[in-house]
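Bench notes, afternoon.
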Amino acid sequence: MLEAMAFKLPESVLVVVHTSDLQILLLERAGKDGQWSNMWQSVTGSREPEDADLAETAWRELLEETGLATGTLTDWRLKNRYEIWPQWRARYAPDVTHNVEHVFGFLVPRITPATLDPAEHVAQLWLPWQDAMKKVFSPTNRDAIWQLQKRIAA
């Protein structure tokens, strides 16, 4: 008897890790045979069925992807709905074509090196927000960084 394949939930978090002077942590995705090389992003990850809420998802992803635990997590109450890229669609149930992404910020006291999981990320950079916006591959990530500088200024 075959086990049922566990599909990813079409709900995720995007966590922009930053300092008070708007230095942004970016992570370069790991990929097979350079497939996703030079794809920079903030912390991201899918909600798991056992996650009590989206804040728990954000904390879990922060710890898994960066090891960072000292800082302030803020739910921006911002949602993005987007079509799942074809190369990642097989991870979801066959009828799922879109994902809902919930945006969080994570304010750290200072630039701190992340502890990367080499299966997920191969490099890290801290950049000023303007440069980070230019480097990320995801339009929703770019928008979140833009939103961050407006939030800090307000």
